Amino acid sequence: MNNILELPQLIAKFSYELPKNQTVLISGGNPPDVQWLKSICENKNIFCADHGIDICKEADIKPLQLIGDGDSATSEAWQWAVDNDVTITKVPTKKDVTDTQLALQIIDDKYPASTVILTGAWGGRFDHAFSTIFSFNGMLNKKFFVVVFADEKRNFYSFLHNEEHLTLNLKQTPKAISLLPLGGTCSGVSINGVYWPLDQVMLNNNLPYAVSNEVNNKENTIWISQKQGILGVYLYFE
Fold it and tell me: Which member of 20, 74, 99, 139 lies 3.0 to 4.6 Å from 68 by CB, making a disulfide possible if both were Cys?
């Protein structure tokens, strides 16, 4: 069963099978560490959204495709993509979706079953991050398309739907672990291996209190499960 996703900081074991195809989408937020980025891009399809091409140029990582309107990418990075024969999908500045949302739609068309690591998505504008997270919740089907937000400091998994569970074997100890009820209410939520464990509790986004938890076991492993809802799992590394 292909249910394991490995990042430099951790190994995530999901309760469902992940799509075999793995894609990295580099967006235009805060750039991830170059060595971290190189490590996750190995043997994966690489796409970038607009300013993400600057991150690719800096890391000398050639993407398969650049999607964007060019309003945030530098002219030097855009020309670098042209010189390196990157497939470019130039879109209008005035449109109903963001460049990152459009890039995900294109990836979904090319690889209907895909595990996507979205990086370069943190930082910058809150409204963009909010739009990205919640639009993904609306389009995802766990059997066909999985998205993980990640960089060297932040990892976010918004894919515990209903009766699912997740095991995280940590190579590095995070400073904080937070559970976020993204769909309003999550019931039967449990987390173990932390200082403040939860057992079959209900979380509501009117008072999202299950934040800033810490690892508390020698195995450096945490276990998370829920019965119903859409639960976000967020880890922050220093």
Answer: 99
Kindly report, residue by residue over 84-103, the tens digit of the pLDDT.
Answer: 999 999 988 888 888 888 89
3-state class (DSSP) for residue 22 = strand
Q: Average per-residue pLDDT in the chain?
A: 90
Q: Could you give the strand order of the β-sheet that contains 114-119, starting from the edge strand earlier in sequence?
A: 87-90, 65-68, 45-49, 22-26, 114-119, 145-150, 154-161, 230-236, 176-181
pLDDT at 142: 54
Q: Which of 131, 224, 155 is nearest to 186 (CA)?
A: 224
**Does residue 25 contact residue 43 with C-beta atoms inside 8 Å?**
no
Calculate mean pLDDT across residues 126-148: 71
Please state the rounded mean pLDDT for residues 180-187: 90
In the block, residue with structure tokens 């060019």: 70
Give 143's pLDDT tier (boundaries 50, 70, 90). Answer: low
Q: What is the distance between the alpha carbons of residues 115 and 172, in angstroms, rounded to a whole number?
A: 23
Tracing tokens 């450096």 back to the chain, one arrives at 220
Q: Taking a C-beta distance cutoff of 8 angstroms, is the pair 124, 99 a contact?
A: no
Cβ atoms of 153 and 237 within 8 Å: the answer is: yes
Distance, CA of 203 to CA of 56 (rounded, Å): 39
Nearest CA among 88, 2, 101, 5 for reference residue 44: 5
d(CA 164, CA 15): 6
Largest CA-CA distance found in the chain, in angstroms, rounded: 55
**Closest listed residue to residue 68, CA positions, set 87, 55, 49:** 49
